[in-house]
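Lay summary. Proteins are chains of building blocks that fold into shapes, and those shapes determine what they do. In this project we predict the shape from the chain. Here is one chain we studied, written as its sequence of building blocks.
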Amino acid sequence: MDRRDFLIGTALLTTSSAPAYDWDTVRREFRLDPKLVNLGLFYLASNPREVRAEVDRVKRVLDANSHDFPPDLSSRPRAALASYIGGAPNDIALVSNTTTGLGLVYQGLRLRADQEVLVNDQDHFWHQEAARLACDRVGARLRVGTLFASPATATPAEIASRLRDSLTPATRAVGITWVQSSTGLRMPVREVASVIAEANRDRAPADRCLLIVDGVHGLAAVDDSPASMGADVFVAGTHKWLFGPRGTGMVWVNPAVVSEIRQVLPGADRTTPTTYLSPGGFHAFEHTYAVHAAVAFHQRLGRSRVAARITELSTRFKDGLAGLRGITIHTPRDPAMSAGITCFDVDGVPGSRVVEHLAAQRIQITTAAYRIPYARVGTSVLNTPEEVDRAVRAVASVPR
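And here is the predicted shape, written in a compact code that computers can read:
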């Protein structure tokens, strides 16, 4: 580390408890392409300096002696994640990504042929597939429905009402996405959990409906504690908004329902039934054992301040789009119903062409690879108001 690097790191530490952050200083902790406006950083996040350093440190420890390494290497990730989501370390299993976590949960769900699983048509394809494979295994029914008429105008009351009407005594699980990468809609998890709790009031454990949440685009983008939202299972990769090492993720299970999820792969950590869900075998340990550094980085920044910055930038982008003709915003403009992802259409122009047009101006956005491939922007704390404004101007110049 040279003197400049040291000064930047020191500035981040000393400003972390200040009333306001110098976001430019935070941005310099990352190896970003200075010539690119990257509004797709949520896809596979850049890592801050201290996460990269911790990955290297763990690698050196393992290289020196892979048989006799400090025991806290393996326990620190769960402890750190628990402190961040508001749960207990022994209620967390470590996985490599959201898809693996969802697969383990759905395959392990104690599901009968006379039961069903309910998911949403805007959930990620791999979430739907995890549920389908579990249903196919036992001959159960998979129902794919919708809980809102339009994502842009969805409300907690509408979603709760539609869910209440959709549940049956056979519904064994409901899968939802906290922040949908297909629409940008932030699902009201607490209201959904309340509806499911009502349905479970007189059910036996084997008939209980479990709420399974794909939380990858809410974790570290929304100021909330996943373990207290009312979900039974919360699954998320940590290599997106949390800036964690690539190939890392978590599954949190409410200890009251862990007996309803079987282990489907050999596990190495037998501390609790939940930790035993973590797949055994060899992994990229230098990444897994460095997750705590990403958590510490976010905790110093402050979850509420991070979420506020993301909201500020996403609101700025949506407000800019709203002032343009021929633009349809599919993400709610209400910050309580959205987070860092904004999906939109340019009338008469496929989303892929919008992406290409902005790419020619060195602005990276993506399309939502779903039933309807909307153009999609993600506003991270690493972005700036100037970058957001530049993106709005570029969208305005899309040929029609």
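What the prediction tells us: Residues 303-322 form the longest helix (20 residues).
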